[in-house]
Give the backbone structure.
Amino acid sequence: MAPIQKMYQDGNVAILHGVGYENSPRSHFRSMDIWHTCEPDTLGTEGWLARVVRDIDPNKDNVVTAVSMGPSLFRALVGPGVPVATVENINSYGMLTGLTPEEKLSRVLSRYRRMYSPAIGTGPVMDYLGQTGLDALKGADILSAAPANYSSDIEYADTSVGNKLKGIAQVHLAGLGSRVFYLDHSGFDTHADQVSTHARLWTEVSTAIRDFFDDLEAHDAADNVVMFLFSEFGRRVYDNGGGTDHGAGGVCLVIGESVRGGQYGEYPSTRPADLDQGDLVPATDFRSVYTTLVEDWMRLDPVSVVGGNFEKPEFILK
């Protein structure tokens, strides 16, 4: 993590300890659902970032306000009537990009538009499907210009997270009005072979993050970007012989020029008597962290996004 260590020394990384919520189920699916929806006690119906996007662009004037980098849409961005561009590879993003010649592609896309349009106004399900189809077509047209207008001296490592962050840099630098980006990097569920796996994963992640911010800084575009990293739960305190199992209290990182670097929250006690079934006890509610991001960074009302009032850690410069 040397690249992130250097950013931390420069005062641009906040480390938040003991983040989580009460009664962690230690289930990937349920825990991710809670983090995505801010609903630890009930089954949430929409993502917290979908609420953010709705507040940023209530009239849906820009279908690429939010961009989900990956093969599928992340639940944090899912909400009724909230358009999100889901992009697996920005360089080949678009509808039927392999179709040639251009005249044939134009005819086919025109048919798609005529197919989606009549669905709107014939019921809520068809409204949703029709609008989603039209938004996807429009988003593909808008984002397809990003790689062509991008030039950089930064050579990103050819890793999954590196390629995703390069794609985000391309869209951000294109000035398309995109405000929220989301990506993931999996493999941290280290029940076995933890030492070597973590070494590889954190090398990939920290290198990609440093490349990303170097790219933005070279284009004078880093001052309005904050990156937030989280995992759905921490790892168990005691190892299982080769790795660690699902835990509760975890750590989050916030990175950027507008971040007040340092460490926040008390590190949870590791005394055996203080553990919860062998796990660190969360001391900071994850919704407190979201509150800071929504209110101090995005300048929005956090209550409707996170579902209540939470004391926020002050890791954003004002």
